[in-house]
Design brief:
Helix content is 64%, strand content 0%. By secondary structure, the chain is mainly α.
Length: 211
């Protein structure tokens, strides 16, 4: 039995609180097996990193030092892109019966190339969509050139022990936010449409079997 003043172990101290507790707003759930099976876990993770990048920008706008915030902000934006592209590959492959697998690497250009021609270019054929995709490709290319292995925004040195390449000129985080807002709208819209049709296809298979 725990003594009255004995501190709780983290496993207990960090558990969700009961309804009505002032800290209830801090309760959060992890994805479950069903979310992983449905492919929704990738969507949840991607949105979460995008939201955290926005939280970092808001902290910047409140006067916090951008020289500290630049790393977590850019990492979260970049990781959103990686997760979203992998999610599109996985969901798109199932929906369109494509023989696609998400590369088990961090290179954004490889991920973009894997989804662009077989899914995006062929499925969304309007000029407006193609302009949006071209813009997304430009931003994805910038992040990949800056950080091809998803290390530069996480560590000051790489696995080799060498200083990771970073532009000595710096970056304007507000401009990055504006560009990422456009890209996020584009990729989230594609994701939403794919997931909607995928849910319908899965429901059809459950009711009537494979087409």
């Amino acid at each position: 039995m725990m003594a009255e003043n004995e501190p709780q172990q983290p496993r207990d101290a960090f558990a969700p609180v009961e309804s009505g507790d002032p800290k209830e707003v801090g309760n959060a759930c992890f994805v479950d097996g069903q979310a992983i099976a449905d492919g929704n876990a990738w969507d949840i993770y991607a949105i979460g990193y995008s939201m955290q990048a926005e939280a970092g920008i808001n902290a910047l706008l409140r006067g916090n030092n951008g020289d500290y915030l630049v790393y977590p902000i850019l990492f979260c934006y970049r990781h959103y892109l990686e997760l979203r592209l992998k999610q599109l590959i996985i969901a798109g492959a199932e929906l369109y019966d494509q023989n696609l697998t998400a590369p088990n690497r961090h290179n954004l250009i490889e991920l973009w190339d894997a989804i662009y021609v077989p899914i995006l270019h062929e499925t969304w054929s309007s000029d407006l969509a193609h302009r949006d995709f071209e813009r997304a490709g430009d931003v994805i290319g910038w992040f990949n050139e800056f950080d091809p292995s998803s290390e530069a925004f996480r560590y000051p040195i790489g696995k080799s022990g060498r200083l990771l390449p970073k532009s000595s000129l710096g970056v304007n985080l507000i401009s990055v936010r504006e560009a990422m807002a456009e890209v996020t709208i584009t990729l989230d819209a594609v994701s939403g449409e794919i997931l909607m049709h995928l849910d319908a296809a899965r429901d059809h298979r459950k009711r009537y079997g494979s087409p």
